[in-house]
Amino acid sequence: MNPVEQGAGLSWRGCSSGQWLALAAPWQRGAGTAPSMAQWQEVQQLEKAYLDQVHQLYSDDHLPMEVRQYLAPWLEDQNWSQAAELPVSESHSSQAHMLFHTLLAMLDDQYSRFGTRQEDFVLKHNLRKSKLNLQAKYQERPEELANVIANLLLEEKAILSRGHAAQQATAPPPSSAPMETDRQQKISGRLAETRAAVQELDRTVRHLEELQDTFDFRYKVHRMAEGAPASPELARQMGQLQVLLNNLDRSRKSLWQDVLARAQELLGRCETLRDFLLEELAEWKERQRKACLGAPCDTSLSLLETWFTGAAEVLFQLWRLLRALGEQHAKLTYQHDPLTAQLPLLDSRLREQLCCLMKSAFVVEVQPVMPLFNWRPLILKTSNKFSVRARLLVKLQDRSHQLEVEISIDKDPPSLKGFRKFNILTSTSKLLQDNAQLDGLVCDFRHITLKEQRAGGAGKGNRGANEGLLAVTEELHLITLTLKYKYQELALELQTSTLPVVIISSSSQFASAWAAVLWFNMLSPDPKNQLFFSAPPAAPWAQLSEVLSWQFLAATERGLDKEHLQMLAEKLFGPGAPPNSALTWAKFSKDDPPSFSFWTWLEGILNLIRDHLAPLWKDGHIMGFVSRKRERQLLKRKQMGTFLLRFSESTRDGGITCSWVELGEKGQPKVRSVEPYTKVELASLQLPDIIHDYQLLAAENIPENPLKFLYPGTPRDQAFGKYYTERREADLLEQKKYLNRRLIRVSSRQPSESWIPEGVGLEAPAAEQPGANHLEALDVPEPGANYLAAPGLEPGANHQEMPEPGANRLEMLELEASHLGMLEPGASPLEMLELEASHLGMLEPGANPLEMLELEASHMGMPEPGPNRLEMLELEASHLGMPEPGANHLEMLELGTNHLEMLEALNMMRFDSSDPFLPPPDDAPPPELPGPPLFLAADDMPPLQVDSTDFQ
Amino acid sequence: MRKEEDGEESREQAVKRGGKQLRALHGVADLNNGAIGLYNMGLSCCLNSLLQVFFMNTHFTVILRRIRVPIGHAEQKKSVPYQMLLLLEQMQRSKQRAVYPQELAHCLTVHNLKLFVQYDAAQLFLSLWNLIKNQITDWELADRLTRLYTIRVQEYLICEKCSFETTRESNMLTLPLPMFNSSSQRLKTLVGSALQQYAEDSLHCFFQPEQLTDNNMCLCEQCERKTSCLQGMRLTCLPQTLTLHLKRFYFKKSTWTQKISYSLPFSQSLDFNQILTQEQCHPDAKEKADWQYDLFAVVAHSGLASCGHYCAYIRSLTDCRWYCFNDSSVCQVSWDDVKSTYGNSRFHWGETAYLLVYMRKNPQ
């Protein structure tokens, strides 16, 4: 090979011989790269059978084991196979030679480190012997040693993998560990592969540097010699040098080739890794979106952070390697150098990958949320504090720059008339910090608020003028976080946006704002589409039902089951609707007074459950969403007294009712329901207590609790026992000044009322009229409460028959706290029953449990209407056979015809209880029959003044 | 017609014979010595990728191994198939991870395929294949090579006035598949999975007849004037090794070539019976049941149109694993790696599939 041919395109840019000296311990430069466990260490941890194989491997004395031991890291860090393979000339084998001498030098170094202790003496001897042996054996053929070492390392690897395989086969994988998905395994595998590949590449590049330095040094010697006078000896040396230079050059070129090919290769594999990571991140974002809607999703980022950081480390290391190659290229290049064309290409490709990785690694970890309403994120109220947290998933250890995050809202607002503009108040920038508590590189914005920008000179009444095309709660705003990222020589601007937020100014908009958040995150394919509500798509039931269930799950820890959803689907789409039915946004959320939307209804029930019924709902005692028709089907087949709890479909703010089955007139099963209880009632009286004390006063029946078995057949007290307010025990323990009192609401049923047999196609409205036969019981155990009301008829207490000849209507009396408050001072131990006087008169002769009737109209503070118009019934509780232990209750039955008239008059002003949303045909109360619930205002009742002494 | 039938018969025999030989050589042709890389001799990544696709194809190497060795040193140096055979032998003997294809590169230079010139893989494939075919002196062998690679189609031109049809048989080495449909909309996949997606799939679009009107009107022999007509293609015969060429390089009006990097997914298997309608197949087309293919190789391009890099993903026919041949570096990869060459409009420098080589499924 002619030197001129090789050197033709060579452009010499000089190098210092100092670099040559640095070769003495080349492996030290590798420090700080791969922290992976050394092979030799792993080998030593193998089981005995495999250790024997290792001993076998080193028994041939090609390489003494102590050499392997002392120089383990260095040995593993050299490319021995390359040294063994490289084309070598007769006299010098560049790389193998160099490695051989370094090895000897390192053995000397090791030797000198031994002390003078006894045990060291033998070690020193052995090491010295080993060194001399090696020297003698391989002095002339260092490439043979390279070959031996290369093979030994390979063999070790083989033994290791066999050992690991056997280990894995014997030890079953820990079952407690969460199952990794296929992709997660692929990612971990791929990360390990690329990491190994980049380490390998790193070694090669360092080797290339060494070769380069050798070449530089020899070339310099060559050039110096050129000036010297010619002599045969010098000519021979020159010839040798020339050959060496050519060889060096050739191996260097093929190494460069190799490095480039492998870098291309590695980038290709990293692209797949990137695709995996982006898929995984997209899934996380989807999970986060669902979690915002209340779904139980794992939104932990720690795994993603590990992966992103790992991938970024590999790419950054590759980037450093490319720059090192670039420096070499700058020092020395030749014609058709592959680096010239390929380096820029690789650099661009790598930079693109890094940018993509970094950009996707900047995420919103916690979506904007107000601390007071943390179960419903993405709704912000002006001038209320909220927080948002961004996180960078690439957490490199050696960051040197301060990273600041800027927050802004609506960077590119949609050009929409009346679209409101906001400012973020207090501070709009914050440092990205490694938060040990949150375990991540996060930027936590807290205590920031929004303030609406009022258009200054827009003229007066600008709210009207600026009336937007979208409702306030349909206006979507994006909060953007921007990070100026710098690492080494890479500077990037990373940006991430929150999911769109709805900005409200009043708490009353909260429910409809949440409807918008639900709809957007359920249906918008583009998480940044601020104009989503310009044309909101309809929601397929399959998707909607899932989201609705999450609402219950989030608020109450119990979602909706199949039957619930079935009922809702029928309510929305009618029976037998196709499974792919979809609900429009307007039908879902738009109230159309006087009716209300599906969402308003559901939200009312959600609130009712959360505030008053949480334990019952959670334990599954509330069937809740069941149609009247279905309810009848269910109950009819059950034993009498079976009841279930159902949400009213006609109550706007959420109502719950009991329906039970009883015997009708002709002996057929008959299902009845009580007027729905709303938050007003439930605020003072718990539903289990209502159920427990529930009374049905029917004209021809003795009052009794018709609620005996919770569907399908659990005895009432067994199902609800644990929720009852414990009052009796308290009464026993406490010798109180006052007798305890309870408020029970009573409704009665008229004997004249016709019983409509079940199964008659035409449902008589009277029979199904909600609350038509009401008997409600309010119970207030504490004497201090504001409520005090009537009949102290305990369930199972002595029964009275009360024929009501005159009344052709049932009544329900509800005594408001305010007017009973008047009774408080003295009447607290009293329980009052208000009945029509004439009825009482009729009761008098025959009602044997009633022993005493006391009429004291003056005490009642009422105009004396005549002896038989107002009567007071005073009953001794014990006489009535009431189980109330030790209670010497007085009960007062009070009624006046004039009151009844008043009640009737009020009846006409009943609440309109027609279902405004979707009136099912069998659910509608007939218009001609007055609805029963009567709420008496304080002044409807004559003032009552009862002195407790009067009754003693 | 008669002639064609004869051709078919001899073809069947050839297939049988080939199968026997294949079995005899099984495990010899590809990956005999592990996968060996080829050093980049100077922008020769494109050549290297194509060579690997050739060498890994056992059906091709069976032919290559049977060529007549040219007589005379100079002839040998000039013979592309012979130099390829030598290179194949060298790769199979090599103890190194990669070899230098310098003799072959030198030989190609003689035939005007120079090093240090950026070639388009589709173009280079065509040139290389023609060189090989023309230099195989054995007529029968050359014929086998032709049948192994060429697609036979019938082009037709139907006058819309009188329905007069003009046809022409032609051979193609690759199917140049469009990335956009006739109304310049992006195509979404190589093969649509359902009927309604056909409008968005590239293969369907390729066989869709085109209406020639206005300036493009053709002379109808029957009407004896220029009429608007329908131009299209009917498939007559598909070869064992079917090469598809995604037209990712896009010449705008300027001389500036642009690369289209957006995603065009392809599948691991193709069934032309489900892709083509009755009208898109030639009535004489036989062996339609055999029009079932498995993906064999993907030649992927990374970088821009002006400066880029090629590598080849090849599924070994002997061990059925995917390998990536990146010049001197070869490694085993997964189908996910191949999938990441679907392309992505967000990345301009990433790897995108450019040539897809499908192999006919084995008759069993």
From TrEMBL, chain B:
Transmembrane segments: none annotated. InterPro entries: Papain-like_cys_pep_sf (IPR038765), Peptidase_C19 (IPR050164), Peptidase_C19_UCH (IPR001394), USP (IPR028889), USP_CS (IPR018200). GO terms for cellular component: cytosol; nucleus. Residues 36-361 form the USP domain. GO terms for biological process: antiviral innate immune response; negative regulation of type I interferon-mediated signaling pathway; protein deubiquitination; regulation of inflammatory response; response to bacterium; response to stilbenoid. It holds the Pfam family UCH. One of its GO terms (molecular function) is cysteine-type deubiquitinase activity. This is Ubiquitin specific peptidase 18. It comes from Pelodiscus sinensis.
